[in-house]
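User: Can you help me understand a structure? I only have the sequence.
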Amino acid sequence: MNIFIYLLRLTFIFAAVFPFTQKAFADISMSGYQEFFMGSADQTKMLGLDTTDQTDQSKSGFDNGTYTRITATASTKLDNGLEVTGVYTLSKDTDSGGNADNDGVSVDQNDITVSGGFGTIAFGNAASTGSIMHYRADTIIPTAEPDGANYKFFFTAGSNSYGPVNELDYARDSMKIRYLTNVYEGLSAGISYASSVMGEGDTASGTDQNTGTVTDYSDITDFVIKYAGETDGVSYGITYGYTTGNTQIITGTQYNDYEGTMITGELSYAGFTIQAKSLDQGDSGGAVSTTDDGDAEGFTWCAKYGTGNFSVGYCDQHSEEKETGVAIKNEMDVKVASMGYDLGGGLSISAAYFSHEESQGTTTDTDVD
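Assistant: Let's start by predicting it. Here is the structure, written out as C-alpha cells:
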C-alpha cells in the first residue's frame, strides 16, 4: 500500500506598509508555504525487474517535500494609474546550499508585472501562459498529486519515456515575457515567450544556450484562449492552448521542433468539481530521420467533492508515446484517491492512495502501490 500524508501545509501571510514623509513607497507583504510528507510504497516491478529477485525497493519514511518557500511581494501604483508588482521567492534549502527540488519551478518566482486597462504584462522568472490559464485537473484533489510529483520520492520510476502529461515549459520559471488580457464577457487570452528553457532559475547567468540537449528548447511561444461562465449555479470553462519551441542540432542530427496542443475543461456545481485535460505533442523532439516514433499524448481527468472543511478526490492519468523499434506504445497510468481536512488558520492535512504503472511495449517497467 502506498499512502502519502501531508503532515503539514502551513500558509502564513502578513503585510507591512512603510510610509515615509512626502514620498510614496511600495506596499510590502510576506507570505509562505510549508509542506511535509510521510509515505510508504510497495513496489513489485522496478526497471523491468521483479523486486522479489532483486534488492527490495519498497520505500517508506518522511520527506520535506518540494515547494516550501517564503515569498516577498511589493506593489505600488504609478502616477499614470498603472499597477506594478514585484515578486521574489526564497525556496527551502536551495538558498542555503541544500537540495534544489524547487529550483527552476514556477513557484520559485522572481518577476515584475504591470497591470492596467490593457491587461497584465509580466517579465522575469515567471510561469508560462498555459501554467496560469489552463485547468490543471491533477492539482485540484487533496494533496495536489500527481501534479506535485512528491509521491515519486517513495519509489524508483522507469528510465524510458512514457509520454507527456503537460505541455512544454509547464510550471517552469524560465526567463520570459507574458501578456494576459483582461476578461471580457467570460473570454480571455494570453501569450508568453521564453528565449530558452535553459534560462530557468537553476541555470547560471550567461550559460551558453547552444550547449543544451535535444529537449532544451529555445524560442518557446505559448498561446491560450479561455472561456468561462456560470449558469444557474453551474460553473464551466474551457481552454485551448498551442505551444511551439525550437530544438537544437546535436552532433549533426536534426530533431523535430516542439509543437503541442492542450485542451482543458471544468464543470463545477454545489461543491463538486470535475476537470480534464488532453495534450497532443506528436513527434516533438524526435529525430527527423526516425519515422516510427512519437505520437506522444496524455489525458487526465480528476474530480473533487468538498463540504465544510472536508474534501475527497479521485484522479486518473494516462500517457503514451511510440518508441522507435518498439511495436507497442510505451504507457504510464496513475490513479489517485485522496481525502483532506482543513484545520483552519492555513493548516491542512491530507492522505492519498496511489497506483503507478509504466510499461515499455509489452514489458512492465514499474508497478507500485
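Now, to help you interpret it: The longest strand covers residues 330-344. The helical segments are 129-133. Let me know which part you'd like to focus on.
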